[in-house]
User: Fold this.
Amino acid sequence: VTQSTPVAPTGGSMTVSGLEDVPYAFKLSDFPFNDGADGNNLATITIRSTPLAGGLFLGNNPTPLSIGATIGRLDLATQQFRYEPLENATGTLNTNFRFQIRDDGDTSQGGANLDPTEHTATVNLAAVSDALTKARVAGEQRMARVTGGLKIPGF
Assistant:
């Protein structure tokens, strides 16, 4: 019986949709993955470039990830890997980063488990209404005059 040599998986570029001012937690299913007949699983993604606007984070660590950081399957499956946008940013301008995928296949017999192609992930941020409006603030000021409490400067 001859065993075939494992071949590299193939990934793909993708776009996910998020909301302005809200971190986007990536899911395992966000990252296109195909390992053909090998049947291996996605094991890691490796960051090859970072977004120009916003940052990539893992778990509760407040330090942004840098180029070369590796995110494991469990972190993707439990949505520990996230993109945090700049305040009031919308659309896709500068929200993308590049990555490579690796599968969990055995390479001891000379096969490959790293997709040689870098792919692009883009986060499309939808605009949302800001919670504080002048009308609401004006209403709170009227309430403050009645109760003698809240004062909001500038309105």
